[in-house]
Amino acid sequence: MVRPDLRKSDTDLTGSEMAIKLERNAAGRMVPTEVNGREGVPFAGVGGHRPTGRKAAPVITTCIDYPADGDKRVGSIREALDRVGLADGMVVSSHHHLRNGDAVANMVFDAAADLGRRDLVWFPSASFPVHANQIGHLDRGVIHHIEGSMNGPLGAYCSAGKMRGLGVLRSHGGRWQAVQDGEVHIDVAVIAAPTADAFGNATGDRGPAGCGLLGFALADSVHAEKVIVVTDNLVPFPCLPWQIQGNHVDVVVEVDSIGDPAKIVSGTTRITQSPDRRRTAELAARFCADAGIMKPGFSFQAGAGGTTLAFAIYLRDLMRSAGVTARFARGGSNKYMVEMLSEGLIEVILDGQTFDLDAVQSLRDDPRHVNTSPFTSYNFHGKGNFASMVDVAVLGATEVDLEFNGNVVTHSDGRLLHGIGGWQNCLSAKCAMLLVPSYRDRIPVIVDEVTTLCGPGELIDVVVTERGIAINPRRQDLIDAVAGSDLPIKSIQELKSELDRICGIPQKVPRSDEPVAVVKWVDGTIIDTVWRVG
Amino acid sequence: MPDLRPAAAGPLGDDVRSDCHVAYEPGSDSLTLEIASKVDYLYGDAIETAVRRVAGEFGVTSGQLRVVDRGALEWVILARAESCLRLAGADGPAILPEAAPGAGAQRSRERLRRSRLYLPGNRPKLMLSAGLYGADGLILDLEDSVTPADKDAARLLVRNALIGLDWGASERMVRVNQGDLGLEDLRRIAHHNPHVVLLPKVEDPEQVRRVADFLREIVGDRAPYLMPILESPLGIHHAYEIAAADELVVALTLGLEDLSAELGAPRTETGWESFSARQTTVYAARAAGVQPIASVFSDISDQEALASYVQRERALGFDGVGCIHPRQIPVVHTEMTPTEAEAERAVTIVRAARDAERRGLGAVAVGSKMVDPPVVKQAYRTVELAVAGGVLTAGWDDGSI
Fold this sequence. Notes:
Chain A is α/β, with parallel strands linked by helices. In chain A, about 25% of the residues lie in helices and about 20% in strands. A 9-stranded mixed beta sheet of chain A has the order 18-17-16-15-19-22-26-27-28. Chain A has a 7-stranded parallel beta sheet with strand order 5-14-13-10-6-7-8. Chain A has a 3-stranded mixed beta sheet with strand order 9-29-30, with no helix packed on it. Chain A starts with a helix and ends with a strand. In chain B, helix 1 crosses helix 2, helix 11 packs parallel to helix 12 and helix 13 packs across helix 14. Chain B starts with 6 loop residues before the first strand and ends in a 13-residue tail after the last helix.
């Protein structure tokens, strides 16, 4: 389905050449009023935007058009794209459960190029350095622009203003919301499946490229017009469990390999050896104990990044010695979380993605280790979500400012560096903590004002650095809870002053006035703009 | 301006962090400055100002200075630039950074020295947060961890760290080189408030006196305390004379790696090969009224072995041990902390001693038993350790325990 708004891209205007109208949003940030031909809604404050209308859905299909024996196989990805009617300007989605080992997203656009397709929109749930392959397709016009996280070479490409159209960065929950609300209509979803049957039932929890779960592909399978399942481990019907239901699937393609297992999950998860990061993690865990957050039946979310992983280990030790168990933990899951489950320190893991082999095995074999999706965990336009029920979430950031606003997508020079992941969604936890170094190689992490606003300060409760802990003044309850503890509690201004002394007061970084991407808030509004660098 | 030669200071390479490389190339044109930095968009001007400040004070007005910066802080950049120009043959005053809080911290002869963390003297990255880890002492090492080619640069880096680095509550220690090289080290650093200077491979009390006299000559009564390190059979043989060599000596320690090598008896877990050396060190130090401090524990991955090591050395009479990684510090502090029973007994003795003093009594009695002065002294020590280790609250004396 060719979207009319993309036809004008035939003139090959780059983002910087389009006359883009800007408006100041509720956070004071200048944001485009139109994004890739669609109206952009400026951020209206936390909880300030109310959606209307009905959810989007694909057209009604009939089983008359599908093989009664359930065998939907075709010979190649190229044939599959042809079969589902891939046309110029369509939106093609992929998921990132195979992380930097993914071979499928690259194969899809190589095949689309072979078919002579142009101006496609790539809508990944995240991209990795392995996807630098797409730069050639962007240059040659096969891909018009990317709506999804961009880092490494793709981030540099977008930041340099080389992409036609604006990048659109969404959180995991925001991606679900955009698909569900019809903000992004996926024409063709391509789902890399570690195991599948010929009907299209698919699972990520087994197979040579086993990655655990496939939650990031769930919205695509339900809402996309056409769905292609690509697998390198075809099993006889029925594929169990069916994390993806074959009834949504149009065609199935068998390939030699969907990815490099060594880069999909790590054999071992190792915690950071950096003394500074370990100190930060330990302070955060002690904060949870001293503030009374770590109490019987509590819940937490800790990612798999170096510092947050170390946090989970320190928290485990404190839970053990205090005899406290958690009702549930939200993953990214890894070996350490699985050990806590086995030990009984956690009763249930609600998993969003699976980072190592131990976690894949646990997800497959232990009924207390549960497969979740951005719908259950994060979707803002639903009847609640798990994220706001979590007692404490620990997250990273590239910058935090004196108002506790957080940046997670750009470097302080403005270059795109990271995707949002579940970061924005997790901010709705009862206590959202950012674990950050106070500076990285002289670059202060605590700044006067974040380069790119990704999370409003009213949702960020605590900032933990190796030099001390700053509690958001809005959280007097937390300030009171740790009064009298021997934790190094400081004001964020105090931390900033220390950095001014240690690093020196930084120069002002000039920014261009050419948008290259927008950052969406969890409700689909635009919270900030990423500007061209260099 | 004198004839200068090409020179460079500071490391180069992709994995370098928090450091910078400064190179000088002589030339007849007026001085140019080329800066490549990953932080130039935030600190390009600051880097240029710092390097020009050094060039200006050294009267270097021609040639080319190239800076490859990997996020170095200003005190590091100043040290690298000064080292480069000194190596190039220029001369000028010491170019000092702005002082960090605590740069003027008072030293104390009797303070706790449970843990001391060794940090290589030419690696700023490892120094930056060292003051946060709560070690009783931090040692910037100019000896074994610095290659001969880097000695000059390390000396200026350590000098600037004594001024610009925040040491937290840790005692400010420097291990200098042996002999004349060590005096060269002291010439650069002694004015900047090092609390303790560690002297490697001391075998003869004369070595200690030579350093002590040199320090008094250059900084008078601000001369830092000394901690001689015994690292050879001869050093152990002269342990008492060395400990008592000069009033600046506050502690005596030993280096078991070198000692074992010289003995021809490799270090073992049980440590019997060095038992006599360790016990001799304790005896000598106590006899001379200084603190006996144990050798470093070098297996950073084995926390349990470290704990047993600390227990064993503490039982021999040592007051502290050496660390080479921040994660060892809490283990050391835990194991050096008296038990609650020990702390209570010490408090009883200390109270009795104060009571006796108040009443002008010469002898201290607890119940019906007399307590001798060394026991009283040790009780004060135990109370201090108990407070530092969290077994006693700082307010134990208010009757609040």
